[in-house]
Automatic annotation (TrEMBL):
<keyword id="KW-0418">Kinase</keyword>
<protein>
    <recommendedName>
        <fullName>histidine kinase</fullName>
        <ecNumber>2.7.13.3</ecNumber>
    </recommendedName>
</protein>
<dbReference type="InterPro" id="IPR029016">
    <property type="entry name" value="GAF-like_dom_sf"/>
</dbReference>
<feature type="domain" description="Histidine kinase">
    <location>
        <begin position="320"/>
        <end position="533"/>
    </location>
</feature>
<keyword id="KW-0902">Two-component regulatory system</keyword>
<feature type="coiled-coil region">
    <location>
        <begin position="21"/>
        <end position="48"/>
    </location>
</feature>
<keyword id="KW-0808">Transferase</keyword>
<dbReference type="GO" id="GO:0005524">
    <property type="term" value="F:ATP binding"/>
</dbReference>
<dbReference type="Pfam" id="PF02518">
    <property type="entry name" value="HATPase_c"/>
</dbReference>
<dbReference type="InterPro" id="IPR004358">
    <property type="entry name" value="Sig_transdc_His_kin-like_C"/>
</dbReference>
<keyword id="KW-0067">ATP-binding</keyword>
<dbReference type="InterPro" id="IPR005467">
    <property type="entry name" value="His_kinase_dom"/>
</dbReference>
<dbReference type="GO" id="GO:0000155">
    <property type="term" value="F:phosphorelay sensor kinase activity"/>
</dbReference>
<dbReference type="Pfam" id="PF00512">
    <property type="entry name" value="HisKA"/>
</dbReference>
<dbReference type="InterPro" id="IPR036890">
    <property type="entry name" value="HATPase_C_sf"/>
</dbReference>
<dbReference type="InterPro" id="IPR003661">
    <property type="entry name" value="HisK_dim/P_dom"/>
</dbReference>
<keyword id="KW-0175">Coiled coil</keyword>
Length: 538
């Protein structure tokens, strides 16, 4: 032993160094252990407020926990719909994480005790009552089981078990850490469940939102679209629809009340719009849900039903009037003809009797037209002359036009072929066009009021052209004149159905109605009906 070694031995320096390094190593080990604990806690905590993979978290926790605490088996018994279920089994750190519904259990005594006590309890595996994993644990020579309760913010979650092959006492520090870890894990599991429920509800709402066939659009406070369903995104007239929705959106924001309006778009599309305010907890409106339903077909059907009822009533009345007039007309015409045969043309009364006969013939023609009109609901297609149909209409309306001092000009092409259709229905179109022309002339300041009717063939169509020199139609109104109930007339003059019904009849015949108009100068309507095909002519 040299001099320095002897001095160290006598002063105790060597012993102090050994103790120092031992304590230092112990402190380092404790710090490593503490860091590992913090790392495990952090793995759980950082995922509390996001969509998490519980399986991955548990796998990481189990692997790291085995470096801190000695255990040979671990699993979870989770309350599933208020019944305990064997949810996660992690023998030797290898987790079987799929829940099998067959594993739903009845509560066993130790499970209930751990949850009731709200603190870890240690039991011998051989003494377990009816725990389904008992045989498996005994086969692995697991002798003791630590049951750590899992409690969330508002309710119990389940228990976390740790098995050991030897009956080794759990240190207080281990139990304290496992309690902290279990509490944090319980909160994470509870948040994960709540998040999945919210996500599921959100997905259900989105699926419903997308599946609705009608259009749904959500607007912000600026009237900007920030969400819409597939039906809305696929709508061809979406831009003009949004533009025409802005006033109601603004009113819904301003008054915090649901609103309704009807929107007319191109191609005779009619939409019903319902707007509902979206409120926060303070009842402040931060958005508007707009629900759009296409009611075009429904409105057309309503118009057809209304028109059918109206025509039925008018037809019944016309038939009644015609039959009532037939009897006196027969007497008038018969007596006038008898008297005309008895006197010579030189007799001063001859002209008077002749006028009576002429007027009687005219009345008989009107009665005949009324009877024809009353039978138009038959809607049967036949071959007919369009010019004859026009003359039939004029027998009904010539007196009304003459009374208004409206001159009538006819330019009917004589060699026009027959066409196929319901003549009474086509006559109804011509009546509507002439009555509209008469009403336009009533409002006109023209000194010479006139209506001209022209017929000709053009590009496989028979054309009936009705022109007046009345007030004309403003350009902005032209797209809407064929919409049901669209009218500028007084209530007693019309319901806005004439042109809508006329267009429907024309379409049923494979035709169409076009219009040209200049405000202050008049309008021209073109009724186009298809000519017969070669097969039909043959």
């Amino acid at each position: 032993m040299n001099k320095h070694e002897l001095i160290d031995l006598m002063t105790g320096v060597k012993s102090s160094k050994k103790t120092y390094y031992t304590e230092l190593k112990k402190t380092v080990d404790q710090l490593k252990k503490k860091n590992m604990q913090l790392e495990i806690m952090n793995d759980i905590t950082k995922n509390m407020n996001m969509e998490i993979d519980i399986q991955e978290i548990l796998r990481n926790v189990i692997e790291k926990l085995k470096q801190l605490i000695t255990f040979d088996d671990s699993h979870f018994v989770i309350l599933y719909e208020e019944e305990p279920a064997l949810l996660h089994i992690c023998p030797n750190g290898h987790c079987e994480l799929e829940m099998d519904p067959k594993n739903l259990l009845h509560p066993f005594q130790e499970f209930s005790s751990a949850l009731k006590e709200k603190q870890p309890i240690q039991v011998e595996v051989s003494q377990l009552s009816d725990f389904p994993e008992k045989d498996r644990l005994l086969s692995l020579e697991i002798e003791s089981l630590l049951l750590v309760p899992l409690y969330g913010k508002s309710k119990k979650i389940g228990i976390w078990t740790f098995g050991r092959k030897k009956k080794k006492t759990w240190h207080e520090a281990e139990l304290e850490f496992l309690e902290q870890l279990s509490n944090q894990l319980a909160l994470t599991l509870e948040n994960a469940k709540l998040y999945k429920e919210v996500l599921h509800s959100k997905q259900e709402w989105e699926d419903t939102f997308k599946a609705v066939e009608d259009m749904i659009i959500v607007f912000d406070h600026k009237g900007t679209v920030y969400q819409s369903n597939d039906s809305a995104r696929g709508f061809s007239n979406l831009v003009p629809l949004i533009e025409k929705s802005q006033n109601l959106i603004h009113d819904t924001f301003s008054f915090n009340k649901p609103g309704f309006q009807e929107i007319l778009l191109q191609h005779d599309t009619i939409l019903e719009m319902h707007a509902y305010p979206i409120q926060n907890k303070e009842h402040q409106v931060y958005g508007v849900i707009a629900y759009y339903k296409n009611v075009t077909e429904r409105r057309q059907m309503e118009v057809q039903l209304l028109h059918a009822g109206k025509l039925g009533a008018i037809g019944e009345m016309a038939a009644g009037i015609a039959h009532e007039l037939n009897s006196p007309l027969t007497a008038i015409l018969g007596n006038s003809q008898i008297l005309l045969r008895k006197i010579s043309q030189d007799n001063p009364d001859y002209m008077l009797l002749d006028d009576i006969k002429i007027c009687g013939d005219r009345c008989r023609q009107i009665v005949k037209s009324l009877l024809t009109f009353s039978r138009q609901d038959e809607y049967r297609f036949h071959y007919y002359s369009i010019n004859e149909a026009i003359h039939q209409v004029l027998n009904l309306l010539k007196y009304q036009l003459g009374k208004k001092q409206i001159s009538l000009h006819l330019s009917l092409q004589e060699d026009l072929p027959f066409i196929k259709g319901s003549r009474p229905q086509i006559e109804q179109i011509i009546i509507n066009l002439l009555l509209n022309a008469k009403d336009a002339l009533d409002e006109s300041s023209q000194t010479e009021k006139s209506i001209s009717i022209t017929t000709y063939s053009e590009n496989k169509f028979m054309v009936v052209q009705v022109t007046d020199n009345g007030t004309g139609i403003e350009q902005e109104r032209l797209p809407f004149i064929f919409h049901p109930f669209h009218t500028t007339k007084d209530r007693e003059k019309g319901t806005g159905l004439g042109l809508s019904v006329s267009l429907g009849i024309a379409k049923d015949h494979g035709g169409k109605i076009d219009v040209l108009s200049t405000p202050g100068h008049g309008s021209t309507f073109f009724l186009r009906l298809p000519l017969l095909t070669e097969e039909e002519r043959g």
